Amino acid sequence: MAYPMDGRSQTTKRVLIFAAVGETGTGLALLFLPSLIGLLLLGKELTGIAIPVARVAGIALIALGVACWPGTALAGMLTYSAAVTLYLAYLGFAGGLAGILLWPAVVLHLILTAFLIWASISDKETKT
Predict the structure, then answer these.
(1) How far is residue 124's CA from residue 117's CA, in Å, rounded to a whole number?
(2) 59 in helix, strand or coil?
């Protein structure tokens, strides 16, 4: 359920914007600099399989930021689902990583992304 920013107090809006910016920044850092962020947060560089896991976590944090400001839950989930579909497919094609559930996860997220796009379009048509 989406909660429009209009009905929120100024304090709530400011706190959500602050949190959204912080989480989005952290997500971008995990997506593009996972080893460095691991070193800064945990005292050790991330290596091996921890790199793609950290990047998926970064994608999730970016989506959380989108959902909190200025978006909606639908926008946040669509951001996550589309981005993780692309990243997991990339891992399978170019990254040489492919466990037994990788391609089913890609297909599931692709279907979910299509449903979320459909829901977004339906919402826009209902409002006009």
Answers:
(1) 11
(2) helix
Domain boundaries, the chain: 5-127
pTM of the model: 0.84
Tens-place pLDDT, residues 34-54: 999 999 999 999 999 999 999
* Burial class of residue 112, CB neighbours in 10 A (0-12, 13-18, 19+): middle
- State how far the Cα of 111 lies from the Cα of 84, in Å rounded to an integer: 12
The answer to whether 125 touches 76, Cβ cutoff 8 Å, is no
Q: DSSP letters along 83-125, please?
A: HHHHHHHHHHHTS----TTHHHHHHHHHHHHHHHHHHHHHHHH
Residue positions counted in the chain: 128
Q: Looking at residue 4, what is its pLDDT?
A: 52
